[in-house]
Design a protein that fits this description.
With 431 residues, the protein is α/β, with parallel strands linked by helices. It is 30% helix and 21% strand. The chain has helices at residues 23-33, 55-60, 127-142, 154-166, 188-200, 215-222, 262-265, 303-322, 358-366, 371-377, 393-404, 408-417, and strands spanning 15-19, 39-44, 49-50, 69-70, 80-83, 86-89, 93-96, 103-104, 107-110, 114-115, 146-150, 171-176, 204-207, 211-212, 229-237, 242-250, 255-256, 269-270, 273-274, 288-290, 336-339, 345-348, 355-356. Strands 13-12-11-16-15-14 form a 6-stranded mixed sheet, covered by helices on one side. The chain is globular and about 65 Å long.
């Protein structure tokens, strides 16, 4: 795809900074870059795109580890993806760790996303380190018999499904504090079908209960010493049920990546998320957009819905540049596809609350888990093409130098090596 495309010189075009290289940031950056009318720089702390929708499959099947880590190198044809840690976002500029001079912009897209406990997401910044971590967990999981999953949202349900499908001899228990799985605006039928499928597969689902973990264990987990809780132990729920666990996964506690926003946009943050208007602009800033998990729109925070916001934002930035009218955002009808292993799952379609089962979910999601779609987004072919290489590297480096306010030599080094963030605390601003 696009192998013969020549990079355009866009160094004199409006600068668009996109913060966050997840599903939403990549979609918006590519849409704007493809126009050839903007100098687009996407900044992410990782040197790879994590296809985290499929990350739980990689826990049970190590052949998937490479599949979920996609190179950024072909995403932008004219602009550049830069590996750097964001220190502070201001109304006219962005400060990066490891660089004294801030980066100015004409338009800013904040797509910093959210963080979640490993293995659903990962804080490692290099693909090599991330791959090693997934492989180590796979080996550890294979040696464990009793698994406890705390949290019955989509992550907890999908992790349980992957484990019992690939390791049917293991005993898996989900402990969910609320009285249904995947709480929220989805239909009771959707949730009931999910519970039935898990039960048929042998998953023990405990609803309306919490796990009592000792303070030392939870303290270590919360401070990052554990990304899961390994070691044989007996735990007791708030209803007195005793569970033996060789390993405990905490599938709760999504955190919005807003640390770099608090100084200048603290008054715009509501329950951790940036308040936006109907055009997804940050209140009071017509050239700054916030999309995906970072904003306070009411829809379910999912990759697909976030990508819809990304496309709209790309359209509206072009409209602003043309001084034409903007298109308002419309929150989509709730919908969700949840895989339960390789062979199916449960889904709710965005019309008439229609619930579908294994046949549809296997075809749409569980077999491939959208790998083909995201390899295509990042211009990496069908998933079998892992070749790297940058078309028009010299031109694109000139564009990067203009956007970052640096020499061509400095831009080439930044392109190849990223910024050395130093020893500051990491993990607060990544997708």
């Amino acid at each position: 795809m696009g192998g013969n495309h020549s990079a355009q010189l866009v160094k004199d075009k409006p600068i668009v900074l996109v913060l966050g290289g997840g599903y939403v940031g990549c979609t918006c950056a590519r849409a704007l870059d493809d126009t050839g009318k903007f100098n687009v720089v996407l900044i992410d702390r990782k040197n790879f795109f994590l296809h985290n929708v499929a990350s739980l499959r990689a826990v049970v099947d190590p052949t998937w580890i490479d599949k979920i880590m996609i190179p950024y190198d072909k995403l932008l044809r004219n602009g550049m993806v830069v590996q750097a840690e964001i220190e502070e976002v201001a109304p006219t500029q962005v400060k990066l760790f490891g660089r004294e001079d801030p980066v100015k912009f004409d338009y800013l897209v904040i797509a910093l996303g959210s963080s979640y406990a490993f293995p659903a997401k990962i804080s490692e910044t290099t693909a090599a380190a991330a791959k090693a971590k997934y492989l180590n967990l796979h080996k550890l999981l294979a040696a464990r018999k009793d698994i406890c999953i705390v949290g019955g949202g989509p992550v907890g349900v999908e992790l349980a499904g992957e484990i019992v499908t690939d390791f049917p001899q293991k005993k898996v228990t989900i402990v969910q504090s609320q009285n249904d799985l995947c709480p929220g605006p989805l239909s009771p039928k959707f949730k009931d079908e999910m519970l039935k499928k898990l039960t048929v597969l042998g998953v023990n689902v405990l609803l309306g209960q919490r796990v009592n973990l000792d303070e030392e264990t939870m303290g270590a987990y919360k401070t990052g010493d554990y990304t899961f809780i390994d070691g044989s132990r007996d735990v007791v729920t708030t209803k007195g049920e005793k569970i033996h666990a060789d390993i405990i996964f905490i599938c709760t506690g999504l955190a919005v990546n807003n640390a770099s926003l608090t100084t200048y946009f603290g008054d715009k943050i509501q329950q951790g998320r940036l308040a936006v208007n109907k055009y997804l602009q940050v209140e009071g800033h017509s050239n700054i957009f916030a999309i995906g998990d970072i904003n306070n729109t009411p829809e379910l925070k999912m990759a697909y819905f976030g990508q819809m916001q990304a496309q709209l934002t790309a359209k509206n930035i072009q409209a602003l540049q043309k001084r034409s009218g903007l298109t308002p955002h419309k929150s989509p009808t709730p919908a969700m596809f949840v895989t339960i292993g390789r062979y199916g799952g449960v889904g709710q379609l965005p019309f008439a609350n229609m619930v579908v089962g294994d046949t549809v979910i296997k075809k749409v999601k569980s077999k491939d888990i959208f790998c083909h779609e995201y390899y295509k987004l990042l211009r990496q072919g069908d998933g079998s093409d892992m070749k790297t290489g940058i078309d028009g590297a010299e031109t694109r480096t000139v564009n990067l130098a203009a956007a970052m306010g640096m020499t061509a030599e400095e831009a080439a080094k930044l392109r190849d090596e990223g910024l050395n963030a130093g020893d500051h605390e990491q993990g607060a601003n990544h997708t």
